[in-house]
Amino acid sequence: MEHSSQLLKGVLDMCLLALIAEEPSYGYEMVDKLGHRGLELVSEGSIYPLLSRLQKKHLIEGYFVESSGGPPRKYYRIAPAGREQLAAWEEEWERLSRGVKAVLNGGERG
Domains (ranges, CATH) in the chain? Predict the structure, then answer.
């Protein structure tokens, strides 16, 4: 489990940015979506520092939406620079995953 957690840390920024690119979301909602897609290791507390970092890099924008029955929720939407960064990360991920598959398959590129 610890190894999976370490692998996930390297790609969690990209995963969060991809979710936000699909539609604006708030923190708990992102954790739920990640869990439904097989990334159950992600907790709500672990993503807020990442969201803050993505916001400081101007890759996402935060805004508040009134909530019925509670305090306003902070939603995040992707910024134009975030779309560019996501495209670059997706290309990088494809190259990396092809290389890892080739190593795991004994040198056969897949």
Answer: 2-104 (1.10.10.10)
